[in-house]
Amino acid sequence: MQARTFLLLLQLAGLGRCLLRDDLQAAGVTAFYPGGSGYDAASQTFNRRYTFKPAAVAFPTSSRQVSDAVKAGAVNNLKVVARSGGHNYIANGLGGKDGSLVLDLSQLKKITFDSATNTALIEPGNRLGDIALALNEHGRAIPHGRCTYVGVGGHAAGGGFGFISRMWGLNLDVVKAAEIVLPNGTITTVSSDQNPDLYWGIRGAASSFGIITALTFTTYPVPTSSVIFRYGWVFDIDGATNAFESFQNFVDKGIPAELGGELVITRGPSTGRVGVEFFGAYWGPLSSFNATVAPYLATQPSPTSQTISSGNWLEGLEVLLYGALNTSTAPDPLDTFYAKSIMSPEAEPITKDAARSFFTYLANEGFASNTSWFVEIELYGGSNSAINRVPFDATAFAHRDTRFNFQLYASSSNSAPPYPASGFTFVDGMASSIISEMPHDWDYGAYINYPDDRLQDWERLYYGAHWSRLTALKRSVDPQDVYGFPLSVEE
Ligand SMILES: Cc1cc2nc3c(=O)[nH]c(=O)nc-3n(C[C@H](O)[C@H](O)[C@H](O)COP(=O)(O)OP(=O)(O)OC[C@H]3O[C@@H](n4cnc5c(N)ncnc54)[C@H](O)[C@@H]3O)c2cc1C
Ligand SMILES: *[C@@H]1O[C@H](CO)[C@@H](O)[C@H](O)[C@H]1NC(C)=O
Ligand SMILES: *[C@@H]1O[C@H](CO)[C@@H](O)[C@H](O)[C@H]1NC(C)=O
Ligand SMILES: *[C@@H]1O[C@H](CO)[C@@H](O)[C@H](O)[C@H]1NC(C)=O
Ligand SMILES: *[C@@H]1O[C@H](CO)[C@@H](O)[C@H](O)[C@H]1NC(C)=O
């Protein structure tokens, strides 16, 4: 007997559930199903290493439709996930495995600014570049990352670091309130005085508890000037170790909140060498920029390349952000890659031995690797960081003591599938070259917005000391684990 006929008989007998398709149709929700037209395009992942087959990809147009679709998924025993910009590294926007109901929120695109409260209501289907443009119309801005195509739904859910975060915090730190759909379909608002437990949980682990259908952000006046800079060197292992060690010292020596950025490490021109770049932004006047970075530059040889551009806020973003600011004007490039992160605590600096081990690995294995790779040593902490000023228990984000977030990333050599098996061992080796040289009980973490589904001990590394409070919240809000996906909070 055909499966469909069997289900129909069950339904006639009053024993089975309606098919998902019937439930979504009854709610007026457009969706694509396996085998149907539009399904393959709707199942495309940013990281082409993954090719999951969802049960359906639905395109709700309102929070009411999101709610109806969540109920339809739950009653049909499906996992339900949201997709905003689709940039999750392990395709969790597609459920992170086969058979989930995907709610694509790209139709939820409203952005409104309230000049009385200086807050912006932003729906999750908006991309970061478009948000920056829309808020700039009002002379306002929020902190966020560099890729214009990233969706704000997934960005705010787990963090949202950018080069202005030392001044304004992470993207989730400016979430004042949110409208979310709970796993039982209830549409509710969370804020400091409405559902405060959920308000806590969605700022660091939103996807495990709710589907965000609107975010209310506190906004800032745009900085009056910007300086975007890159200083580049080619170093041997000693030189790179020194460049890193000096940077780690420099960032604790009273740098202003207006300075943000990272060290970027890339393949060197020959074995035993690496490219190192100090890439960052200074949200102050050009006249005080040189003096701000001078103490670091004084510890290093003259850079072999440098670009410094100054301008207003939007001119700064145009140089800084990766991708078209207006994301409707150009397509979003895809990739085929594996990535990990290591968040290093301020209390336990990277030792010289660990730094040397890391740069030895990158200069040798990195030169030999048949991947296209980079490392970004993102500056979260250092003097005057707004990220680390937020009390540890104020949000579910578990890493308020981070100095650096190391992003370790390797694409296939042409950015297309297949991904070489050697890419996994290469990136794992980057991480262990640091960790194996640090004390055994080193209290490092990992960043949930750069998720790695091969990571051991991920509960502790991603969610840290908040894990037990998160699991208790999960038990009370989502006992059926409707919002379940790789690395989600579990009961
Ligand atoms: C090229 C590139 C550059 C990046 N740069 C940075 C950076 O500079 N700084 C930084 O911090 N991060 C950066 N990231 C990581 C980025 O923050 C995450 O990938 C982010 O989660 C993507 O959000 P999304 O909505 O595009 O992805 P999606 O795949 O749609 O969603 C990501 C996760 O969030 C869930 N989710 C999506 N929407 C919602 C919602 N409305 N409610 C609840 N859960 C939801 C999804 O189910 C999924 O688990 C970058 C990623 C890429 C690919
Ligand atoms: C800043 O320093 C650079 C050299 O690093 C120099 O070329 C430039 O003129 C200086 N700019 C200002 C405004 O002092
Ligand atoms: C973005 O580009 C699209 C297509 O060219 C255009 O219709 C839209 O007005 C632009 N948006 C902004 C904010 O400039
Ligand atoms: C390098 O990777 C590409 C594709 O990612 C593959 O076609 C090629 O065979 C690989 N080369 C080696 C030497 O492994
Ligand atoms: C839905 O879940 C929330 C949170 O657990 C609960 O407060 C609410 O009563 C539930 N609603 C229904 C209709 O079951």
TrEMBL record:
Signal peptide span: 1-18
Cofactor list: FAD
Keyword tRNA processing included in the entry's annotation: no
Gene Ontology terms for molecular function: FAD binding; oxidoreductase activity
Report keywords, A-Z. Answer: FAD, Flavoprotein, Oxidoreductase, Signal
- Taxonomic lineage from the root: Eukaryota, Fungi, Dikarya, Basidiomycota, Agaricomycotina
Keyword Flavoprotein belongs to the record: yes
Span of domain FAD-binding PCMH-type: 50-222
What's one Pfam family here? Answer: BBE
Matching PANTHER family: BINDING OXIDOREDUCTASE, PUTATIVE (AFU_ORTHOLOGUE AFUA_1G17690)-RELATED, FAD-BINDING PCMH-TYPE DOMAIN-CONTAINING PROTEIN
Family of this protein: Belongs to the oxygen-dependent FAD-linked oxidoreductase family.
Q: What is this protein called?
A: FAD-binding PCMH-type domain-containing protein
